[in-house]
Amino acid sequence: MRFAPIPQSLPPTVPFTGPETLERRRGTPFIARLGANENGFGPSPLAIEAMASAASEAWKYGDPDNHELRQALSAHHGVPPESIVIGEGIDGLLGLLVRLMIAPGDAVVTSDGAYPTFNYHVAGFGGALTKVPYREDREDPDALLNAAAETGARLIYLANPDNPMGSWHPAEVIEDMIERLPGDALLVLDEAYAELAPAGTLGKIRADDPRVIHMRTFSKGYGLAGARIGYAIGHPTLIAGFERIRNHFGVNRIAQAGALAALADRKWLSHVQAQVAGARDRISRIAAENGLSALPSATNFVAIDCGGDGDFARKVLAGLDRAGIFARMPGVAPMDRCIRISCGPEAEMNAFSEALPVALAEANG
Amino acid sequence: MRFAPIPQSLPPTVPFTGPETLERRRGTPFIARLGANENGFGPSPLAIEAMASAASEAWKYGDPDNHELRQALSAHHGVPPESIVIGEGIDGLLGLLVRLMIAPGDAVVTSDGAYPTFNYHVAGFGGALTKVPYREDREDPDALLNAAAETGARLIYLANPDNPMGSWHPAEVIEDMIERLPGDALLVLDEAYAELAPAGTLGKIRADDPRVIHMRTFSKGYGLAGARIGYAIGHPTLIAGFERIRNHFGVNRIAQAGALAALADRKWLSHVQAQVAGARDRISRIAAENGLSALPSATNFVAIDCGGDGDFARKVLAGLDRAGIFARMPGVAPMDRCIRISCGPEAEMNAFSEALPVALAEANG
Prior knowledge:
pyridoxal phosphate binding (chains A, B); homodimer; globular; Aminotransferase_I/II_large (chains A, B); three-stranded antiparallel sheet; seven-stranded mixed sheet; alpha/beta; Aspartate Aminotransferase, domain 1; Pyridoxal phosphate-dependent aminotransferase (chains A, B); Aspartate Aminotransferase, domain 2; Aminotrans_II_pyridoxalP_BS (chains A, B); 365 residues; 2 domains
């Protein structure tokens, strides 16, 4: 069977193995699901109610214009609806953006160890990806800009706050970076963790700046990962480009209803923010109780430095897995000295607290 | 702003305008939603219950392997799970298939007047589309095969039953067509209306035949259009190709739960089949009462021959719109002598029955 040349050249690799698959391999469910930075505090009860109510309307296609949600986001962010496109999560929007901007051989720059799904999409459309190292556990704006200038990159990916390290740059660093973008490079600013970041991390949303596109999601702070709904904000001409290629009826009706209700429930978001902050502290304390240090985090997860190399951290992760804790870790040195633990409710944090010393003891020999 | 060459060349056209957009333009909601072949009899109550229950689990990503649903579909169709890929409706799967198989300039064949979203995807990946005419209101296998042989087509699209005419070919015609496929052409067999077709329309599912891929959906018979979930069945090597390019976490968790429950509820599907059959008869009677003839249909919609040309049918459609009936019509002559009315519950059928004579009188004078 002969695929088209680009797909034919792609490895049958998948960016992530889901926890359900891991559970089937293990033969038992995880007791704590802390590996995908899901929001275990859950979506707003009003969003759950809206989705449950929308379920009986599931015979209707969702509004392909996502009109109500775009209007609500427009009001929320103070940007015109023409600057907003809704998609099947940031994953789906990243795929569309790469398709829209990258012809085979076009240069793209990211950080080595940053979001694999972006790299997957770049490879999937034949882009030429350059990766620059992290610097002190953060994505390195200067290195990204230099690589972009050298390669003539059309896209530069940066997540702020960062995944998998939880690190962040203050808004001024990003704004300075935008001013220094070379050529017609577009900054893909992945702000998946925006709602969980400390004040001063997010700059002004640039809805009329052709040099940057903001990627946002309902998966993290709003707790709707399974609903698959996110959005991008950018210059209206760029946003209009998505209309040429997107699957217009692709965003499901129930997700639209859930996102709309979640966005409106600011009180629940505050509650989640407080819970996440508490869980971040708890994870840091658990690390310290085990002689490890947790990295500061602007997200709903914490990277814990296991104090050894990647092999050691992988052993710790394997021990956690045996104890029923689903977690993941950075894929690239030196960040792979860490394991990455998502914030979750108390029971999950307790389970992690019990499992970590055992996993460490096993990893130590 | 410079897009990649293929998107840059695309018109900012959208295959379909959604009814919500039309309602915003009209300023009032439709009283009957009969334009998108949605299933107004609704999904199984068990599917609604499953989705409502899954809503509170929406903080978890859906299983990217769609394991449970694939297992259930495997058992239902008697094909191996390796022959099944789940996607965001047939629309999403058609996009992935075109991307997987078609390089810029590659030939693709379809029927003039068949599903516009397929054409949208072919254009979106730079394919060279050849359209052949319908023959007696049906897609024409011989014309498709001849055009495919002449152009060296890699894909041939055929919907059985057909949309927008509701016509169909018996299974033997399709099986004969598969035997006569030229070169390495792949038959894209869109069976969106499979569950509503009369016995003898669907052939054996070919899960190990590299010459055909079956496209199925939960949008029509199962009433889950808004959940955005469909599947393709084909040769395991072809199906594995989707893993190289699909958005692995793209199918939402609530839809997976809904589809699983819908598939299991055979009693509800029988109920819907009976309701649809009744509504088909009702639409035909309404046509006859107005001196028009309805075409036979193997789907959940009926094409009504308005007895004039396309301009006349467009006038009738505009009259229905004024009366609050959302309907659509074929885009190409001579099929555009018809309007296309989806089957729906009694209240919607009554509304159509009241509106049609008025719309006809207006169109006539």
